[in-house]
Amino acid sequence: MRSPFVAVTALLAAGSAAAQQPAAGPKVLRVPAQYATVQAAIDSAGPGDTVLVAPGRYYENLRFGPRNLVLTSHYALGDRSAVATTILDGSRPADPDTASVIIIDGDQDSTTVVQGFTITGGTGTRWLDPRHKLMYREGGGILCEFAAPIIQFNIIERNEAVAKGDGDASAGGGGIRCGFGEPTIRNNVIRQNRGRYGGGIVLFYAAARVQNNLITGNTGGEEHGGAGIWAVGGHSRTAVNLIERNTVTDNVSLPSDSATPRNLRGKGGGMVVLGTPAVLRGNFVWGNRQQAGAQVALSPRVVPTLENNVVQGGFRFGDGRTPPGTGTLETEPAAGARARYGADPGRLP
Fold first, then answer.
1. Rounded to whole angstroms, how far apart are CA atoms 272 and 14?
2. Is the pLDDT of residue 6 over 70?
3. pTM, 2 dp
């Protein structure tokens, strides 16, 4: 199977004539040349279509609906600068309770791609969690549920999910929140987002591939920890979260703002990985801060596979014991060795 990036490039290279013939197959819908708004193009798209967005700032809160499509900037045409100059800004929602920048909840598969944008200004969506049957505000930048999209080559910054209304259980997933699905999150910069848990990324009962991301400067965790990545709950007995070659640095799990005891409050400045089958491989976890415990919060009940990570202070369970693993470095590697770990800067937007 060709990668989505290759498929998109091939479709665009077919030329504008093909895009003007809807009956001929997948087409390209151009914003703003053909559609004034990104949402209008999404609403007009069919299965396999590409919504191609020109540089500019678009004040929109987008919902994919029940469709598989590719949403991309001119990054797909080889313009790397388009990531910074094509901005999806969710700071002006029509409804403050539906304020994620992008919502993907229509059973999408991996042919759905979000690529090549700066995604900012989202404050999350208030909704009923299908497992706990409680209200949460989640997914400041991107909220996906029961879906398997590919989220790649984006800057996801300055989003939050922190506000709690009456009766809300909590708020989290400032940058991205994905639940009950198999998303691929790769080659993104995820920075300066905030959530009461999972300031950068929340994976809830998911089996995600989180690869080659720079996750930095995210804050929160005062209710359930995990300022960088928060992965909790097993999607199935066989499917795992693969967290690989990410640089997770300078995230801060804030002290608890409540006297009510919860065992994750303010913990796991880098990551919380609990109750979920997971593989942590080749990550660089450094300079994260938390109220208590190690930079990565783990539970001995479901121990992830640990391979060739650099973790400041090492992996520790809550009781101080060291989990089994291979190749973990607990001190900063020698000059030049760091390049073997964490995100590859040459592949980041």
1. 45
2. no
3. 0.92
